[in-house]
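thoughts on both lines:
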Amino acid sequence: MTVSGKSVLDAIATSLLDASRYNSDDKTSPVAVLWPDPERLWEPLVAKLGGILKTATLGDFDQSKSAGPAIWIRSLLANFDQSSSDTPLVVYLPGVSRGDLRAVESSSAALRPLAELQFRSVWWLQSNQSPWTPGAFLRSPDGLKLDVARNDETTKNLALVLSELSDSAVEDLRNVGRLDASFFSSLLVADETKALLTWLNEPDATKMALSGNEWAAFVSRSKSTFGVDPDAVGALTIAAKLGQRQGPWKKAWDRFAEAPHSYPKIPDQLRRAKPSDQLFSDLPDSWPQDNEEAEREVEAALVATSGGTPAEARSRVLALEQEHAGRRLTVWSVLGTAPLAGALEHLSIVAHKAHSLPTADSPAGFASWYAEEGWQVDGAAVAALASVTDQYSRGAVGDALRAIYLPWLDDVARSFQKVVTQHGQLADVGLDLEKGDCVVFVDGLRYDVAESVRRALAERGANAEIRTRFAAFPSMTSSGKPAVAPLGQKLAGGNELAPSAGERPVDAGVLRSLLGQAAVQVLQRDELGDPKGYGWTETGDLDATGHKLELKLVDRIPQEVADIASRVRQLLDGGWARVQIVTDHGWLLMPGQLPKMELPQHLTIVRKSRCARLADGAGAVDQPTFPWTWDSDVRIAIPHGIAAFQAGCIYEHGGVSPQESITPHIIVSGTTAQSHARIEGIKWVGLRCRIDYVDAPIGAVLDVRKEPGNSSSSVTTAKVISGSGEDRLLVPDDSKEGEMVFVVLLSEQGEIMAQVSTRVGE
């Protein structure tokens, strides 16, 4: 009769109890169930069965394990009151067969006290009177009647996993079908691919961390799944197979590529394992040295762009992008070792957009063009520089930008200067406020950075609209900051480049005083003030950072953006109805340096890199001149295009160009528009999350984040979607499995339209 039971352990306990059944009409109750185990195969389960049955084990005395010598077991039985117990005592006899007790004369002295016990007890045996073995119990019609393979490897692996197997439900095992060596080893090594990658990452440490059974199971699973014995073939052979990706190794490579940061030492294994006959590999993204060679080729090609025309340089960059774009999808890009492949994505945008110039014929037309598309070229140039961090790679990107971006930038600036000359220099002076408005002044907030601020605000649940303003001329803080302040007093010209209020130059202290006179609260960086009135506060260090760090400004922009957005969110949460973000000027950023133009010092009262106040009676100069915003009788000279009056300028402002003069004015309110978009459901398959969504607007984005409003907390690569449907997002770092995250549905502007909390992989 097949034994039933919820788990294998339950079934074994039931079978042991069934052995003690007797007919009370013609037999006396057995004093014990004797459990012979000559090969000690059942030892892993004895302690677990002790939690279900009353057991005693023959061996050295250990009361905590209910174990002791034969005389102790005799004493235990003498005191065992069967009348008060529904179950007999099960006596486990490791290393003992039934024959050992039956041959009393030849039995060892240690066993003799139990010899007579066999006549008052029952044995737990198969129907053929052989001791039960785990394999026999699983297969036998008198046991569990499961389909268990009959080979040495299966028997070996069953012994390794017996304790784990005992917790399995019998019906689940029956539903599996054939139980073989691979199945049993999977109970100890549930994810053989991850186990193999973990071992390849640190072979010695992994082996030391595994118990004997776990290591044996790992070896068995490696043999059955990948056809290799890690002990026998070694790490380099396995690394070579991983890189070649044949058969089951393709799955192993995909797992590595999904979470390469979890296996930081595998790249070095791959480097050493590349087969010598694969000099020109069909799988160049398998071997780190191939990726490094490709990076060197790109670096050399970018440096070489400086030797041709802008058109030739643009063509070369676009060709490089076509050749190397695929490397952004490789494991080396994820690991950050293909930065130039990443930079090419942004350089190609510059190359594509810089082949044409704006056709605007008015300042307003230029403002529209720059707000719609011109800023994207500047943003791509910054992103290209930010993609690389080492000196030589950034230098190569800089060479390419000088070849394709500098000529375009100079031509655009000259065209803009011509239009402004024809129409007259424009500047938006003053700022209208309503009750509940707080102004946030950011020094040097260029339009492309403002777009990043807008997205960051949307992620924080704020609705931001960007408008354009013309900066005061020259585009310096001294002239530009007073122009965006909500002052009640009209300003006049001054001695250098700062306007005056009465007889006082408008410096920081005077500006605060003027704001106070206009009933505008001046808030320190962490103050909230009274949100029922008017406010002014300052945040951000973009301009100071640009002057100090020059090209390294690109590395600081993300943090600057986050700081600005956080301050605005703080003000909105503090009760302000609306926040207006304003700035004094934009800037130019050019690797190497801006071109230099001459302007004699004696013709000027004050000369900066991108502007100079001409002395009275200076006469005609070779550079464009414009009237000062604060005194139209004062002439300000600027260099043609993007040139500078001083040598070595990398980050500068003060002149007339869309980048410096067309500034963002961001109007921010605290709530976003209602949306019907929603997340219908999510389901994890491993580390891939399937997301069902409904009514997503065009440009909507799906993401998985630790913090729903913080894009930097994303644990995946976001996807653009629209309409209703489903999509899948991969969490590449398997160390995140089990962590709480949020699936978020964002609008094109970055507002959160829906979010669902979940745990990775569950």
